[in-house]
Structure formats: structure tokens, C-alpha cells
Amino acid sequence: MTPLSGYLLVSALLFCIGLAGALTRRNAIMVLIGIELMLNAANLNFIAFWRFSEHPETQTGLMFALFSIAIAAAEAAVGLALIITIYRHFRTANVDKVEEMKG
Amino acid sequence: MTLPFAIIAGLTVGSAIAAMSLRNMVHCALSLVLTFAGLAGLYLQLNAEFVGFTQILVYVGAVSILIVFAILLTRSTDPKDEPATVTPWVGIAVAVGAFLTMALAVVSSPVGKRVAAPAPEVSVKTLGQKLMTDYVLPLEVMALLLTAAMLGAVIIAMKDKEGQR
Amino acid sequence: MSWILQNLWLIPVLPLLAAGISALLKRPNRSLAAGLAIGSMGASFLLSCMAFAETLGKHGAASRQFHNFDWFALGDTVVRLGWVLDPLTAAMVVMITFVGSLIFIFSVGYMSHDENFTRFFCFLSLFAAAMLGLIIANNLLLLFMCWELVGLASYLLIGFWFHKPSAAAAAKKAFITTRIGDVFFFLGIVWLYSETGTLLFYTEDHTGCLEQAALAKMVAHTTIGGLAASSAIGLLLFCGAIGKSGQLPLHVWLPDAMEGPTPVSALIHAATMVAAGVFLVARVYPLMELQQAGVSEPIPLTAVTWIGALTAIFGALVAVSQTDIKRILAYSTVSQLGYMMMGLGIGGVAVGMFHLLTHAFFKALLFLGSGSIIHGCHEEQDIRRMGGIKKYMPVTFATYAIGMMALSGVPLVFCGFWSKDEILHAAWLYQPSKIPFFLGLGGAFLTAFYMTRQMCFVFAGKYRGHARESMADSHDSHPAVHEAGHGHAHDPHESPAVMTLPLQILAACTVLLTLVSTPLWPWLPEYLVAQAAHFDAAKLFNAGTLTLLVVSGVVVAGGIGLGWWFYGLLPAEKPDETDPLEQQFPEQFAWSRGKFFVDELYAATFVKWNARLGELCHDLDRRVLDLLVSLVGWATTGCAHVAKLFDEFVVNKLFDAGCTEVRRGAEAASELQSGQIHQYLRSIGLALVLFVFILAVGCNK
Q: What digits encode the pLDDT tens for the residues B26-38?
């Protein structure tokens, strides 16, 4: 079985890809996709650590991952609803164009 | 590094990169689906079967569809999206920096060299038991959260009475 | 302790109560005021007789009884006051209450036309209370307090008719002149206290300031100029007496004090208040007679003698030429006070106080008589406008004549002769110098002369007052004070009985007092020094005494004769005739008439210097002190302006600058919030990376 570090590296890679996408893409939905990627990477981390821990029977990592998935789903729903509303208002989903909250 | 792991990991990472860099947003969404699937495979490999299946159910089944719907509802005439802002390099630099840091941490830490214990006895039954005893509070809160999110999403996305301009 | 000794305080307090009640009356009530005054004086007289009886028969140190009480305590020191009862005290209180009662009764008639009757009697009672308090005081401080009160009463009474500018000025002059003396008096008191630690005269444990222990200490303590402390204190205390008793050089107030009503002149300026100075010297005599080492005579007493002698001759010289009936008597009082001082200085307490007591009676008689004459002549006071009063006012004439003879010293039958004789006798025996004797003799001659002159002008010849209306005012006479509402003819008339009865009583006393005054049985002088008097013919009929008797008798006869020759043979016909003496000696007469120009000298020097000093102080106040105050004011305003400028230009600027900086900082900070989501995300990402890096690196350590 691959050692833990392999999984951790994969998770790190996924996280950074998600981060890069969230920081660079202009469309709001692309940003949201990046964020979903980051969440999934974190989930992978949890599961990996759970599997390689000393007491897997407590299933802490599993629980965490499950809840994370649930929350991610809720967050995706709300976020997308927001994006749709913003699109309706501004006629664009381009985050650079939505800068009314300027200081 | 075993072979199945390498293949699934490679697939996942590759589709992630594709999801983040493709121009056509629908293509991005579809690659995302692939990424989610790859992740589910990784979970299965790690003996977290339930989570893996949940991943497929929720992410691949629901969240991806949601994203596709959103893309379709918010597209301008051109579904293409300029992939980068004026200065993409800052974001990429930050991400690279983040990756390097984490990689360094992983590699230099003794934790990474752990060897797996024998596969744990995980069944849905035990999972359910745990949920109802140790994690009952988060469960309830989660229920509340989901309700609120659903309601919130409906309200947010609802059309105003006087109609949108 | 006998009852009277314990309640000696009643003697001054009863008139004080009368004064207080009169003062608090809502409406003037003549009979109540007069009744209270006369009643309280009468009661005090009875108490004084009891006190007098108490002192009879006691001789030497046993004759002095006193009672001290605590007034207040200040930490450890207790200030005590008290009263003393000895022959000196008893004789004085009897005299004051007796003469005072008679004068009060006289005033009922004299002031009956005056509208301020009640106020007059209130002040009179106040004066009597203060005077009696002064007499019985056993503490020099208490004496001084009553001294000042007496001065106040004198001021109030001299200026009784304060609408008259001359009366108000005279009152002020009296007060200020006596004040000058009082300043030195007070210095003496303070020094005495610092020397002996007490102001009580006599105490149970013999620590009083007039007792042996204190006196010995003071005479040994030498101070400035080689004077012993006792001599210096004695001189200072005597200064107070100079002021109060009108000695040279502070005599100037006494003649002007005649502006007051005649009963006031009689009581205060003849019999009692002016005698307070003499009494003071007698009271502190143990201190005055201390002889410091190296001198032949006690220094204070030497001063007393010489000033007294000079005053005696001075007063007599000025009295010779005066034309106001009361002024003659005033200068006569000055002269007689000089005699008393001389007597005290040369012969001791007995000689001086003896003359004081006899003088009180006949001087009061003379003043009341003059009051009767003034009243009868419709407020005329110039003797040149009187004349021939003898046939209009016989009773007044008779009593006045008795007073005049007593004052002049007509031998044998009048006590004035005997008391003056005692003084001359002592002066003849005075070792250091015979000059006081000759001055006294000269004074006696002049006294007889001017009294005869006055009698001739007033009583002899024809009445010259009819031409009054057509005469311009002479510069010496005083305008009438209250309008004569008599409605009589312009002829003088005899005074009512309420006024002539006191005159008769006083005349009788003057004669009767002779009985206890002669050297044959010198009861009164011996009593005053608490010694038994014996009927001793040898005392009278010895060469020395008889020679002196003859000499003074000759001098008096000479004076009366000369006076009669100048004025009695050819009485003046018209008011504006020149005085016969003036015709003979015009230069000397002018000096005498001008009172030796002492008042003018004072006006040109002290009064002017004082005014200059006042002006200087005023200028100082205005130019310097006001300037200082203004400077402070300007400085404060300047500081306020500076503060305002500071506030405006510095503080506000700083504040504004600070606010501007804050705004600029905020504007700069708000650049961070660009509204660009990517920027936010990038910032978060960067921060996260850094955070993790730090954690990782930190934890690895």
C-alpha cells in the first residue's frame, strides 16, 4: 500500500490546483469549482489520515469527511443561488466586473 | 506507490488541471465530474467505502449537475470564459508557493512514512451507531443547516415581485 | 470677703444698664431716660458710700482689698480681671457718683429745651459707667478698656450737637489728640506685660505688676538709653495721662471741648475724665516712684513734675486773656491739672489726689454756674457781653463766688486753699529744684487774677448784652446753639431751682470739705494713703507751714487786688472796649490771647505732615499698587490671548493635521478594498500560505 505521504501529496496537489483556479479564473462559477476542489482535497486528507491512524475504529476521519461533504453540498447550493441572483442583477458573472463593494 | 494508486491519482490530478484551465465552462464542469470520480476511487482504495459512495452520490450526482445548471443559467452569448485575469501569475505563484510548503511539510515529517494498519472493520451499521451516539449533535445541526441552506437558496434565487430589470 | 467687695462691680454696671436701656428705647422717653440715669447714679452713690465705709479704719496694706476672677483661658495662660477697693478707689467713686448725680440733676433743667434729651442722658450714663469701671479696675487692661470707653463717651458728648461744624471738629480733635497719648500708653502696657507676665495690679500671691517682686525686677532691668524698664514703662504710661489730662503738649483739645453742652464740660472736662490721667499716675504710683540705680530722683516722677509745673503756668497765662466764659474755666482746668501732676510728682499720691478731689467739687460748681449764667443770658457766652449779672442772678452769683474763691485759693475757709498749699509746701521742699515752686506760686497769682477778672466782667458793672443784635460777631464769641424760646425780655433771669439746687449743694460741699483738709486734722490726705490722721496742732502751727500760709495768702490777695484794680474799679461800659491789660501789655496779651499759637504750630507741622503723608499714600496706592494690580490684570489677559492663539494655531492645526492624516490613511487603506474578489482571494491565499509555513517551520523546531 502506498505510504501516507503519497496520499498527502496528491491532496496537496489537488488543493493547490483548486487554489490556483480560484485565484485566477474570472467567472464566479469557476471560482466556486476551485473551492469545491479545495474542499475535496481536504476530505482526502482526512480519510488518508484516518486510514493510517492508530485507532481507526473511532472513525473520526470518516465522520468529518461525511459532514464536510454535506456542508459542501449546502454551500454549493447557496453559492450558486447567489451567483444566479448576481447574474440577474449585473447581467454578468464576471467577478472583476462586480466591484460595487469598493472601499 | 502501487500501480492502481498511481493511475487513479494521475487521472484525478489531470482532470483537476483540466477543470481549472479549460476555456469552455461546460468542459470544465465535466472534467470536474471526472475528478470527483477519481477521488471516489481513492476513497475506496483507502477502505472508506461509504464515503466513496457518498462522494459519488452527492458530488457527482448533485453538485456537478447544480454547477452545470448554474453555468447554463448564467451564460452570456458566448459560453467561453477568458481563463485568466489581467495578472494570472500572482495566483499561480501563490498556489505554487502553497504546494511547495505543503510538500516540504509532508516530506520532512515522520508522519508521512507511516505504514498502513490492517484494514479496519467499517460497516454501515457501525457508522450509523456512531452517528446516533457520539455524533448526534453534529447530525442534528447538519439537519438544521441543510434545511436552512435549502430555504436560503430558494429565497435568494427567487424572482422579485416587480420582476428583474 | 465682704458683700460690697464682692459686688463692687455693681457700681459701674448700674449706669451701664441705664445707658443700655435708654439706647434701646423705641421712642425717646425723657422721664425714663433721666430717671434711669439719675437713679442709677444715686444707687451707685449709695454703693460707693458702702465701699467707703468698708475702707475706713483700715491702715497700711490691709486697706487694699481686691477680687480677681478668670476672664478667659488661652492654653496655659489664664487672663484674669478684677477690681480693687482701697482708699484711692473709694474716694474717687464717692466723688464721681456724688458730683455726677448733681450734674445729672442740673442737666434735666439745662437740656430741657433740647430735642435729643434722651440721647444725652444715655451718653452721660455710658460715660459714668466707663469712668467708674476705670476707677475700680485691678487690671491695667481693664483700665485701658474703660479708658478708651471714656474717650469714646467724651467724643460723643463733645460732638453732641454734631450739626455744628465746630463741635464736630472739636470732638474729632479731642479723640485724635488723646489717641496720640493712648498709643504710647498701650506701648507701655505691652511692655509691662512682657516684663512681668501679668497686668493685674494686685494678686493673692503677690505676683501683681505693682507688687514688690515685679517692681524689683523691672527697676533692675536696664534697657535703651540706660533707662531701667520701670522708668521707661512709667514714662510711656504717663504719656497716656498727658493726653487724657490735657498736659503740655497735648492740651489743645481741652479748650475746644467746650463746644459740648455745659454739663458735659462740668462732668467730663472738669471733675472726672480729665482727672483720669491724674488717677492713672496715682494708681501706678508704685511703678512711677521706682528709682533706678544712679539717679537721684525717680525718672518718671521727674517728668511728671516738670510737665505738670509747665502746664500749670501755661494754662494760667492763657486764661488771663480769654473772653469766653467757658474757655477761661477750661484753661483754668488745664492749669489745675498741671498742679495735680506737680503734686503727684513732688509730694506723692496724697498731695496730688487731695487737690484732685477738692478741685472736682469747685470746678464742677464753677462750670455749672457758668452754665446757669449762659442759660440765664439766653445762650450768651462772651463775657464782654455780660455784666451786672449779680443783681439778676443772685443765687448763681453767690455760689459762683464761693467756687471762685476756692479756686483762687482764698485762705483758710476753702478747701482749695489747703490742697494748693500742700502742693506748694511739697514744692518748697523739693530737692532738685525750686523752679516748680516759683512756677506754682506764679500760677496761683495768675489764677486769682484771672478769676477776679472773670467775676468782674460777668457780675460787676452794667449789663452789656442789650446791644447784642446790633453788634457784629466778634471773632471770639460763639453763636447761640439753640434758639431761645423763652420769649422773655432780653434781661438775664435766674435759673430754675432744678439748676440752682445742685449749685448750692456743691458750694456747701466745697466749704465743708475744708474741715477735713487742714493740717490741723488732715483726715482726707492721710486717708488717701491709708494712714490714720491725728488731730495735731503742732502740724499747723509751726514755722514752715505758717510762713507758707502767709506767703500764699499774700500772693492770692495780690492777685485778687490787681484784678480788682484793673477790672473792678472801672467796669467795662461797652462790649467792644479793649481789655485794660491789653492796653498795658499789648504784646504779651496778644501771645496770651493767641494761646501761644500752639494750635497754629501743630497745624503747620504735624497736621500738614500727616496730610502730606496721606496724599503720598494715596498716590502710592494709585500709581504703584493700582499699577501692579493692572499689570497682573494685563498679564492675565495677555496669557489668555496667547492661550487663544496657541489654541487656534497650534492645537487646532495639530488636530486638523491629525484628522487629515487619519483620513488619508483611511483613504489609503480603502484602496485595499477594491471590490475585486480575486484580490481578496489572493490576499487570503497568501496569508494562509504564510501562516501554514510559519506553523510548519515553527512546529518542526
A: 999 999 999 999 9
Residue A8, domain CATH: 1.10.287.3510
Residue C597 per-residue DSSP state: G
A100 in a domain, yes or no? no
> Closest Cα of chain A to B113: distance in Å?
6
What is the total count of domains within chain A?
Answer: 1
ipTM value for the complex: 0.90
Neighbouring subunits of B (3+ Cβ pairs under 8 A): A, C
Residue B143 in any domain: the answer is yes
pTM here is: 0.64
Q: Which of C676, C677, C678, C684 to mutate to test the interface with B (most CBs of B within 10 A)?
A: C678
Residue A99 inside a domain? The answer is no
**Per-state percent for chain A, helix, strand, coil, to nearest 5:** 75, 0, 20
Contacts of B91 in chain C (CB under 8 A): 678, 681-682, 685
Residue C685 is predicted with a pLDDT of 81
Q: Please indicate, yes or no, if residue B51 is contained in any of the structural domains.
A: no
Residue B36 lies in a domain: no
The three grid cell numbers given for residue C202, joined into one nine-digit string: 494686685
Q: Is residue A37 part of a domain?
A: yes
Structural domain that includes position B148: 123-165
- Closest by Cα among C697, B66, C141 to A77: B66
Grid coordinates belonging to C24? 434701646
pLDDT of amino acid C482: 38
- Evaluate whether C486 touches C496 at the Cβ level (below 8 Å): no
Paired with C69 in beta bridges are C81
**Is residue B82 in a domain?**
no
Of A80, A82, A96, the CB nearest to B85: A96
Taking the C-alpha atoms of residue C198 and residue C195, their distance in angstroms, rounded to an integer, is 8
Kindly give, in sequence order, each residue whose CB lies less than 8 Å from that of residue C561, ignoring residues fewer than 6 positions away: none
What is the residue-averaged pLDDT of chain C? 83
> 3-class SS at C535?
coil
Write down the pLDDT at residue B80: 58
> Which domain does A24 fall in, by range?
4-90
Let me know: does C299 contact C231? Beta carbons within 8 Å: yes
Answer yes or no: is A101 within a domain: no
Nearest to A102 among C669, C675, C678 (CB): C675
User: Domain total for chain B?
Assistant: 1
Q: Which chains border A (3 or more CB–CB pairs < 8 Å)?
A: B, C
The alpha carbon dihedral of C661, C666, C669, C670 has a sign of: negative
Cβ-proximal residues to B36 (8 Å cutoff; 6+ apart), any chain? A40, B55, B56, B59, B60, B63, B64
